[in-house]
Give the backbone structure.
Amino acid sequence: MSKQTLEVGATIIISKPELNNLLKNLSDLDYELAGPQVKDHTVVLGPIESLAELPKGYTSQEEPGKYTLISTGKENYFDVTSGPQTWKKYFFPPRTQLMIFQQDPDKSPTWSMVSPVEELRRYALIGVRPCDLAGIQIQDKIFLADNNCDPIYRDRREGAFILAVNCTEPCGTCFCTSMGTGPKAEEGFDLALTEGKDHFLIEIGSEVGINILLDLDWKAADVKHQKAAEAALQAAREKINLNLPQPDNLETELLSNLEHPQWDDVAGRCLSCGSCTQVCPTCFCWDSTDKTLLPGDKIIRYRSWDSCFNPDYSYVSHGNTRPNTRSRYRQWLTHKFASWYEQYGSSGCVGCGRCITWCPGEINHLEEIAAIREGEPS
Amino acid sequence: MRKPRIAVHKFSSCDGCQLGILNLEDELLDLVGAVEIAYFLEATSKIQPGPYDVSLVEGSVSTPHELKRIKDIRKESGMLITIGTCATAGGIQALRNFTEPGQLAESVYDHPDYLDYLDLATPVSQHVKVDLEIWGCPVNKYQLLEAIIALLQQRKPNLPSHSVCLDCKRNSTVCVMVARGIPCVGPVTRTGCGALCPANGRGCYGCFGPAPQADLDAMIPLLNAVEEYPGQTVHLLRNFAGYAPDFRKAVDVMLEESSKK
């Protein structure tokens, strides 16, 4: 049954050009629009103003360590899945100032500490894939915890608008179906869009989403359109080749195989470069460093993305707690797929496949998991 | 408090790393306010004798004269810091270590008999104790500044050693190896440059030398698979930091294996 009013849970359709008016409405409300666009032989996330910047007519061919952008000539704007970048850069910036320490010129050696003043930025994220939406929800648990809230993340996240896009063209390294995160967005969006041949089907997820639609030329989605969208999503599910069976079992299956010889095997192929962690929508490790300025009366403390694959990351007094690639790879994989459950109540993986595509070492982590979870070879 | 006396010494090199100090345009006045530049021929002809609290050494040890001089400098320096890949790992000059130096000299000079050189061009650390090594061809001037400020504040300098990949990702630079199949040594190269080459659409050629966690055994098959011409992997690794032990040994093994075939 189609609903005739704009309300949360209702589904409407608009023509493709009408999405420009939707984007304009967001701009008029002072959102900074960010969306996918073709750049540097892939799709990156950056400022957009209109449909014209979106990756229309592209798809991607992806396998471990290889990404190829392919022109399809189709009129679809959202056929290409995510590139190497994730939305986390908007809420958890790769580099940011945490504090500024300034020596008081009159009362030396007294120091004062101030938080850097940052203009509040409200982002509208356009084209968030369901897996990435799940990634944002996982990072919310980390950075918005009641007892441990990160103000930098909170300030950027709270005002953000999310336009999700359901996936009808998954790529070769996608496995959202295994992780239960896609190809359809279920919650956590303001609007969720499914692209049809000549229209967008939009599911309304919030009151803010309704406000954006008020003056658009929309109509209620009829059964035909809804069925077509569901058929496209079902086809997408069937196109996904990678499979991680029963991820919930990994907590015990990985942690009970910490001495499996496969850890040595993968350590011989892993470059310990950290790329997998940087392209992961949920990895959140960071480092803080002090930059001292001459003549010595000012210090700026920076926070930057770090990685458990960086030997410096696990360096403590008297040495490195994870001194080799085997220990670092094992840490990453067991945290992401096993100990994350105890820490945050879910897997740390959303099945986006970036860690596979963007591994210069061409490692398919699902194959490693498959070998390890089987237990010690006899 | 007395200002630390700093000396900047040149060995076999192009002067590019010393210029890094002079290129600290915004910070230079504060820097010379905080330290006393006692010896720096690139900047001033006013020479003050040692001892020096800190000696910054650029270039590799390539001649008998340089071999004597580095030992003298060590004796009159409280702390000795190598600046750049030449001083730290032999650099460009050390490429001649992979050739027959006599033939090389004859092909370049009309009168090679005027030359007085050592058989090998070598890093400073092969001859004297080095307190801190700063990599790069040239060095990142901000790493140099950080080292000097850390000395002034008597703390460990913040000179990260992770791979270039981490910086590419922090900078939103797309991986040239994955997206374009361009050979890139970034995964095994020490950070410090700010990931300049991939940001300009080319592969890293390892001028900051091998990262401490570099696994060349894992990297070489991946580079071989995307070579744009046969032998490119050898050229990439036997380059600015080619005499650094990790890169050198990896290429030695590669060449030995290919000679067996």
Summary: The mean pLDDT of chain B is 96. The longest helix of chain B spans residues 245-260.
